[in-house]
Design goal:
binds 6-O-phosphono-beta-D-fructofuranose, 2 domains, 16 helices, 464 residues, Rossmann fold, four-stranded parallel beta sheet
Length: 464
């Protein structure tokens, strides 16, 4: 392979540039040209096919900095519909016109779902990314546990549900232990929780902090590092009455409570607490908003104004209970060392896999006690259920103690290797040197897009 394409698809993460960087550095060593495709699959639906050379003469372009969050080649939630054969042919034809012999997609489970039909036309592999940490398996046989039931009300006509697990869970069995972006999202969320805590204490308030993650509770679980009092995850239905009682007990003791909730939490009837709006990404994912607000409304009703008045801590429950979303801050900015390092390794591994002739495969980050973290290649079909679908990984129930509403011993054991040395000295030095740099006040922000724009070429340019 002489020239490969690379694209970033789906929601961004802080570690995307690091993954691209890892692939490009390895490509330089192996004398392979890397073409960056602008804005994910969107690039291939554009007849001009905007792209840029990421390593002309096998030198990495200076704009590609693994310590900068986001993606210099842009991302979008556009995807190639496997049912639309003409689109697939068009996309692959355009790749071939660019002289591309293989494709690396940096994406999550949605992108991997769409990879197979592309891989039937041109070699394609995936390097994983997602702050949600939901690409992978709790154990190798997990895909076999999915059942599907006919349901004309949903797109595709089927609903998928889990059957009872027949596997004994062990951390060593996890496939793709953690995805790049997750550690930084937890770092941001835990820091936010620490900060909200002191204001809740000072003003005798109850804070509900919502973190992302869709239907997977990993970010909420990891936010335990910020020491909230209670954590609610989507995998464990919330009994709101019981929660209100726990909140009152804690409030009696310490005059403040900090609750973290994952955006996809459900009540005892399995109804999503937050509103769900259909989004258009490949997995048909739901965009979730408002779990914390919904919870606040229920707690206001259940706890009531008199409770706060009796303590002389504000007049109304509305005043005392507030919500904050960590929001997109958990998905942006500089990646911490753990993400940078492993994202780059996963990018390099994806490139090697293409050159070794692997197709429809994914580079994964494995962990066990003897070998620590290491990268491997994994056939994407092993992530598919018997109907060919890849499901988002749920946080294993063993990781969560539903009584304590905190990580269980197993959850703690899961988190420890990721976060033990997750922050590098340079991460701290970076804050010291850059945040209050006087130049920040003098100079406008210089966008990476401005520089990359000067390098963008179009299909017609290449042909002349
Ligand atoms: O999948 C990543 C993610 O950040 C989810 O955690 C979140 O629900 C969603 O993307 C938000 O997407 P958007 O940025 O498009 O609103």
């Amino acid at each position: 392979m002489k020239r490969i394409g690379i694209l970033t698809a789906g929601g961004d993460t802080p570690a995307l540039n690091a993954t691209i960087y890892g692939a490009v550095v390895r490509a330089n060593q192996l004398k392979v040209e890397v073409v960056g495709l602008i804005k994910g699959f969107n690039c291939l639906f554009n007849p001009r096919v905007p792209h840029l050379a990421l390593n002309p003469l096998f030198q990495t372009i200076p704009e590609l900095d693994p310590a900068i969050g986001g993606t210099l080649i842009g991302s979008s939630r556009d995807f190639v519909d496997p049912e639309k054969k003409e689109d697939l042919d068009m996309v692959v034809d355009r790749l071939k016109k660019l002289g591309i012999d293989g494709l690396i997609c940096i994406g999550g489970e949605g992108t991997l779902n769409g990879l197979q039909p592309i891989a039937e036309r041109i070699p394609a592999v995936l390097a994983p990314k997602t702050i949600d940490n939901d690409l992978g398996l709790n154990y190798p046989h997990e895909p076999d546990e999915w059942l599907r039931v006919s349901d004309p009300s949903v797109k595709g006509g089927f609903r998928y549900k889990r059957s009872q697990s027949r596997s004994v869970f062990s951390l060593d069995q996890i496939v793709n232990y953690v995805t790049p972006g997750y550690a930084t999202a937890v770092y941001v969320s835990a820091s936010a929780i620490e900060r909200v805590r002191t204001t809740a204490e000072s003003h005798r308030r109850i804070a509900i902090i919502e973190v992302m993650g869709r239907h997977s509770g990993y970010i909420a679980l990891g936010s335990a590092y910020g020491r909230p009092d209670l954590i609610l995850v989507p995998e464990s239905p919330v009994d709101v009455e019981q929660l209100a009682e726990r909140v009152k007990q804690i409030y009696d003791l310490q005059k403040s409570v900090v609750i973290v909730c994952g955006e996809g939490i459900v009540d005892s009837q399995a109804n999503e607490l937050g509103a769900a709006i259909k989004s258009s990404d490949p997995a048909g994912n739901l965009a979730l908003s408002g779990a914390a607000e919904a919870l606040r409304t229920r707690l206001i009703q259940l706890i009531g104004d008199n409770y706060f008045r009796s303590y002389r801590r504000g007049d109304t429950a509305k005043e005392a209970i507030f919500t904050r979303k960590v929001g997109h801050t958990q998905r942006g900015g500089r990646p911490i060392l753990f993400d940078r390092f492993h994202a780059a390794q996963l990018g390099a591994k994806a490139l090697e896999m293409l050159l070794e002739g692997r197709n429809n495969a994914v580079s994964i980050l494995q962990h066990n006690e003897s070998a620590g973290f290491h990268v491997e290649g994994f056939d994407a079909n092993r992530l598919r259920d018997r109907w060919g679908l890849i499901h988002a990984r749920y946080m294993h129930p063993d990781f969560y103690d539903a009584e304590l509403m905190k990580p269980s011993r197993s959850g703690i054991n899961y988190l420890l290797p990721i976060f033990a040395n997750a922050i590098g000295d340079d991460d701290l030095e970076h804050i010291r040197q850059t945040l209050f740099a006087p130049g920040n006040l003098l100079q406008p922000y210089h966008s990476i897009n401005t520089d990359v724009n000067k390098r963008i070429r179009f299909l017609s340019d290449d042909m002349v």
